Amino acid sequence: MAKVLVTGGAGFIGSRLVRRLVSESHQVKVIDNLVLGREAHLEGVNCEFVRGDLRNLATVEDVMRGQNVVFHLAANSDISQGAARSDVDLENGTVATWNVLEAMRRCGVRDIVFASTSAVYGEAAVKPTPEGYGPLLPISFYGASKLACEALISAFAHNCGMRGLVFRFANVVGRPATHGAIYDFTKRLMAEPTKLSVLGNGTQKKSYLHVEDCVDAMMFGWRSILAQAPAGSAEIFNLASEGVTQVRDIAECVVDEVAKALSAAGRARIEFGEGDRGWVGDVPFTWLDGSKLLALGWRPAFNSGDAVRRAVREVVEDFVSTPRKGG
Ligand SMILES: NC(=O)c1ccc[n+]([C@@H]2O[C@H](COP(=O)([O-])OP(=O)(O)OC[C@H]3O[C@@H](n4cnc5c(N)ncnc54)[C@H](O)[C@@H]3O)[C@@H](O)[C@H]2O)c1
To answer: Around Cβ 317, how many Cβ atoms within 10 Å?
Structure first.
């Protein structure tokens, strides 16, 4: 049994991770400011919840004392926000991560698992993109912040004898979604079941990973990689399933599932926008090479297409059964 701090534990991925940790009898503490997360995601879960902001070092130091490991997932997950406000990712990503690492140093906590992203690669020329690809030139403030966080983890690890494990996630899908294409499409179709407007021309292609696989890989990484790592080391792994999926196919899948769920007579019309970017800073084609992690024995249960189809069913089901939970 370990004492585990999960930052962002009331969020989409964080709450699923907390449930898994608790089910394996770990003593879990969550810190989340609930700006994007919801306390309801942890309803009935045997963990300690602290409503607090990682931008405040004293608060972070307070929750850090006595922990064995930190799963650091808190961040601004809305990439498009950066285009309007260039300090959102700096504060909730880079500064927050420095606070987490500094609090770890002060409290003698050694191990950190970090949720990074494919966005650090920017528009990579090599696909599928391996961890060693460079130079890393992110095109969003979100990606830039995550890359800075990775660098801070490496520097703290080497200067303070910590151990860091960084996962660069593909697009993670499933329940309880609160953002992302599947969630947005479903929400819009529930409000207006005859038509769906899609940002961009639908040709954007990305690797998708089901949240169950994401959580499973983090647990595998903690047990099988971080626990064996020497002090003063940081290692990076892409976290993706096999294949890529087009936004156009996601839209079709959501339209079909919503029509089925509402027993609608016809299908909604899909209207695509222009260009191959959903928003400024969107990378139209991401495809991660996940072979480094696979070589260590981890296997995802779902490929990209299956992850999307399963997630669409889950998200639509949540909207239909409890519209407030879904929406
Ligand atoms: N969902 C994906 O597809 C995806 C892909 C790549 C990386 N990631 C990363 O995985 C992590 C979890 O993502 P998610 O999709 O669950 O997002 P999420 O928004 O559901 O979870 C993030 C949580 O962090 C909290 N938070 C944000 N700023 C905070 C602060 N200053 N102090 C305390 N709490 C704060 C939010 O309230 C939220 O509950 C994030 O770091 C995200 O960047 C997610």
So the answer is: 15
Fold of 173-206+243-282+304-326: UDP-galactose 4-epimerase; domain 1 (3.90.25)
Statement: residue 264 has pLDDT above 90: no
* Ligand 1 atom with minimal separation from the 146 CA: 43
Determine whether the shortest distance from the Cβ of 115 to ligand 1 is under 6 A.
yes
Q: Whose CA is nearest to atom 21 of ligand 1?
A: 11
CB 42 within 8 A of CB 31: no
Domain extents in the chain: 3-172+211-239, 173-206+243-282+304-326
Q: What is the mean pLDDT of the chain?
A: 95
Write out pLDDT tens, residues 12-31: 999 999 999 999 999 999 99
* pLDDT at 215 > cutoff 90: yes
Three-point CA angle 171, 68, 102, nearest 5°: 75
- Please tell me if the CB atom of residue 157 comes closer than 6 angstroms to any atom of ligand 1: no
Q: Which residue has the tokens 């399933």?
A: 241
Pocket mutation for ligand 1, best pick of 5, 6, 7, 13 (most atoms within 8 Å of C-beta): 13
CATH 1.10.3720.10 assigned to domain 3-172+211-239? The reply is no
